[in-house]
Write a structure and sequence with these properties.
This protein is α+β, with helices and mostly antiparallel strands and 143 residues long. The chain has 3 helices and 8 strands. Strand 5 and strand 6 form a beta hairpin.
Length: 143
């Protein structure tokens, strides 16, 4: 399986007054992980957004939370590509702490033109990079 992993400590501002991770902060962190992923495959967002005028908005997101995380916990955010569509990208996320999985997410991104905000096919070079990082096995598909 080809995946990307990023570690992140939960900061004071990521938590509610009880010291437990606040889910909107989780989603903000997840967005940062996705941004790191794009840079990791050679397409940093400043290039995609400002130069190539390609957006990658989230069009679908589901999350399942299995146990709480607390201020100071170091979490590992693992991201894998499960499907590359014509203009979509399916990502699986597994977020773990020292005691195991804390939550999981499935996210679908779409390639869009930042000129007219319509879906576009992945450019050939971007698509090739995405396919090269597709998870091996399971339900990984290219369409």
């Amino acid at each position: 399986m080809k995946s990307f992993s990023f570690d992140r400590e939960l900061r004071f501002g990521d938590c509610d007054p009880s010291g437990i991770a606040y889910f909107p902060s989780y989603l903000n962190i997840l967005n940062g992980v996705v941004e790191e992923f794009w840079a990791g495959i050679g397409f940093p967002w400043p290039e995609l957004i400002t130069i190539r005028k390609i957006g990658t908005p989230t069009v679908h997101l589901t999350c399942d939370f299995s146990r709480p995380s607390k201020f100071g916990d170091v979490l590992s955010f693992e991201l894998g590509i499960s499907k590359v569509g014509g203009s979509s990208l399916h990502l699986g996320h597994v977020i773990s702490g020292a005691d195991g999985v804390r939550w999981r997410a499935h996210q679908i991104l779409a390639a869009t033109s930042l000129v007219d905000h319509r879906a576009i096919p992945w450019p050939d070079d971007v698509r090739a990079a995405l396919v090269a990082h597709l998870q091996v096995g399971g339900e990984a598909t290219v369409s």
